[in-house]
Amino acid sequence: xxxxDFSALNKNAADSYHQQRNLIKKVCKGEQINxxxxxxxxxxxxxxxxxxxxxxxxxxxxxxxxxx
Length: 68
Ligand SMILES: [Zn+2]
Description:
Layout: H1 3-28, E1 33-34, E2 41-46, E3 51-55, E4 62-66
Antiparallel strand pairs: 1-2, 2-3, 3-4
C-alpha cells in the first residue's frame, strides 16, 4: 500500500467519525434522520447497562452508544 492510500484512508476514517458524531447528536435531540444506505429512519434504541443503539431497521447503520 502506498503512502497516498494511507492518507486517503485516514481522511475517510476522520470523515465518518465526524459524521457519526453528528448523527448521534441529531438522533439524541429527536431529529428524524434517514439512514444514508437504506433511507429508513434511524432510531435510538435503549439497551441495558447504560448502552443504547442508534440504528436503522435494516441494521446497516448500527452505532453502539454509551450513555453517561
Ligand atoms: Zn440502513
